[in-house]
Amino acid sequence: MISTVKLHVKFQSPYYTRSQRKMIEYEMLSDTIKNYKPIREEPPRLTMIFDTETSGLLPKGECSIDQKPYILQLSYVLYDEDKEMVVEEYNHYIRLHDMTIEIDKGASEIHKISKEILNTRGIPIEEALTQFYKDYRRSTRIVGHNISFDMQMILIEVERNYHKMTANGCVSPECIFNKMYEKVHGVDHFDTMEHGIHICNIAVESNRYGKLGKDEYMVPVNVNGMVFEKRMYKKRPSLLELLLQLNLEVGKLHDSIEDVYGCVRIYQKIKHVVR
């Protein structure tokens, strides 16, 4: 590109005719267009806040993939960290591929999801997982309440439906919650339950023995003039307990999309307190 200094000298020179000056201007314009690089806006910093409702709890010990629970409802929102608002929402019941799959009675009493609801209003799990995969890869933070459970449930369903997901265009479903992937792409996790332990400070007597664990402590107790120590710990609060402690709207809990929005309110409140 012709520098402004050189251009000024050339334009002042008596040796350049008007047509030659026009030619120089044309060359400058062509050079500018050729080297133009548009200003690219940074992509929004998105946080995925998600929750699941399931057919039951995870069994203790080893078991086959078919013996593990199934996701009955998958919900999440994408929260723009710069705008401090929810920008996208996803919420679907999941149709069971096999209607002989049992829904635990205790779980059913909590979330009120029946096989009839799943059969009439649900979508295939691979469809939900495919969208979850796409939006997970757009996110730089993952938020949930007792997030480890919901992460395990997603991974169980990914294992069951891996080939269906790849057929749907998911290049690498195994990247979901993968430590190496998240380290390289700067993805972190935020568990509102863990952050809520020291907000709620709910003291519960421990039945453990040996070395004090995390959040455990001893308190003196006087019984009939005799003093002894009682082992206590700070309980991990439920979503309801944390919402009440923070004076936030409770809403209808145990519907995964309602739990997600409860989690959003907690996340916003904790973030502002931490600041």
Automatic annotation (TrEMBL):
Keywords: Exonuclease, Hydrolase, Nuclease. It holds the Pfam family RNase_T. Residues 46-275 form the Exonuclease domain. GO terms for molecular function: 3'-5' exonuclease activity; nucleic acid binding. PANTHER family: DNA POLYMERASE III SUBUNIT EPSILON, PROTEIN NEN2. This is Exonuclease domain-containing protein.
